[in-house]
Backbone:
């Protein structure tokens, strides 16, 4: 929402004949929009051989299967930036991470297999 507000302010300032401030607002809106997009998209979850890899844009998070204590469909009351209707809460160590895979049931089955395998070899 912030980038759109900046771009709209830039248009307003251009129409009010304040071209310098208008250009500055529009550029800051465009640049912040690009930064947000790079940090958010694409989101994907990869079940590696020894860890779950969560990628959100340029950011990656690695969760070893041996650290996963539990995972379950998250309740609607819990706050998270992930879609509240289709997400999984993964408890690892003292932390919890929320993911929202497209095929939630398949993801849970495969994750359970990986966690069981890692704990059996531990």
Residues:
């Amino acid at each position: 929402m912030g980038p759109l507000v900046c771009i709209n302010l830039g248009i307003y300032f251009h129409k009010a004949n304040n071209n310098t401030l208008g250009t500055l607002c529009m550029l800051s809106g465009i640049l912040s929009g690009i930064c947000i997009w790079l940090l958010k998209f694409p989101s994907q979850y990869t079940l590696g051989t020894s860890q779950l890899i969560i990628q959100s844009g340029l950011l990656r998070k690695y969760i070893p299967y041996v650290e996963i204590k539990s995972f379950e469909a998250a309740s609607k009351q819990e706050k998270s930036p992930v879609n509240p209707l289709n997400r999984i809460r993964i408890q690892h160590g003292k932390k919890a991470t929320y993911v929202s895979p497209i095929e939630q049931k398949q993801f849970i089955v495969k994750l359970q297999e990986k966690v069981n395998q890692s704990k059996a070899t531990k």
